[in-house]
UniProtKB/TrEMBL annotation:
Keywords: Membrane, Transmembrane, Transmembrane helix. The chain crosses the membrane at residues 12-31, 37-56. This is Uncharacterized protein. It comes from the Bacteria.
Length: 112
């Protein structure tokens, strides 16, 4: 269910961004012909921001790998502090959710 809501939310965000780009682009034609340069500049900024939103939403997210406690322990052993260890683990695996990283680091710290 959570994955379905995430997909629905992503779809609505993409749709809204595309609609906003289209509407502002249409308005910019009129602003450009009327020589309203301030509004043209604002329109360009709004379109650029929405293109950024589209890029972030459509970028594929990597799949997390399956970590063993020993692998996590080896990775985080030289790092001091639980938060730094969680950050280190998430940098090593870009697809790993925060909650899973916290759980893995806790398991690795208990075992050491």
């Amino acid at each position: 269910m959570e994955q379905g809501m995430r997909t629905f939310s992503k779809s609505l965000t993409v749709l809204g961004s595309i609609l906003l780009i289209g509407c502002v682009g249409y308005l910019m034609v009129g602003w450009f012909t009327d020589e309203r340069w301030g509004w043209v500049a604002i329109g360009v900024i709004v379109i650029a921001a929405n293109l950024g939103v589209l890029f972030v939403q459509l970028k594929p997210t990597p799949k997390p790998r399956d970590w063993t406690v020993d692998e996590v322990r080896t990775l985080i052993e030289p790092v001091h502090g639980e938060m730094a260890q969680i950050r280190t683990l998430r940098r090593a695996d870009k697809g790993l959710p925060l909650a899973k990283a916290v759980e893995l680091v806790a398991q690795a710290r208990i075992g050491s």
